[in-house]
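Good morning,

Attaching, inline, the backbone tokens for the sequence recovery test we're adding to the shared suite. The designed sequence is right after.
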């Protein structure tokens, strides 16, 4: 059974702007609870884009470590280097979406002026 969870983690007003953290459905690998966030394990899956990537089971914990106003260096300290980056958007791959191999689960961190404005767990087309 596919578990689709939408969790609005945090909405806080900062200087007139809103910070929204959303988890759009990272399914656990089994009927058990998702894995607790483990920074070392999270970082060990950097660059792993196949079904062995266990980051999707740690997405809730990863999102919980991010907060509005964090600097890019603070995000790096919390999660490690992103798999892809631009000055305003960092992407951490969590592997293919279970049951949908043409889609990839990703954690996206958006920045404005070098600080976190939004963190989102979502799916994208898997172009790898």
């Amino acid at each position: 059974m596919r578990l689709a969870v939408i969790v609005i983690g945090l909405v806080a007003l900062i200087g007139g702007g809103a910070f929204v953290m959303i988890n759009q459905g990272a399914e656990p690998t089994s009927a058990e609870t998702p894995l607790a966030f483990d920074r070392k394990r999270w970082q060990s899956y950097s660059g792993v884009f196949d079904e062995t990537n266990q980051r999707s089971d740690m997405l809730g914990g990863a999102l919980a470590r991010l907060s509005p106003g964090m600097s890019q260096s603070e995000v790096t300290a919390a999660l490690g280097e992103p798999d892809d980056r631009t000055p305003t958007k960092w992407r951490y791959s969590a592997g293919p979406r279970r049951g949908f191999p043409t889609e990839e689960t990703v954690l996206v961190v958006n920045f404005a002026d070098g600080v976190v404005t939004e963190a989102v767990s979502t799916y994208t087309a898997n172009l790898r």
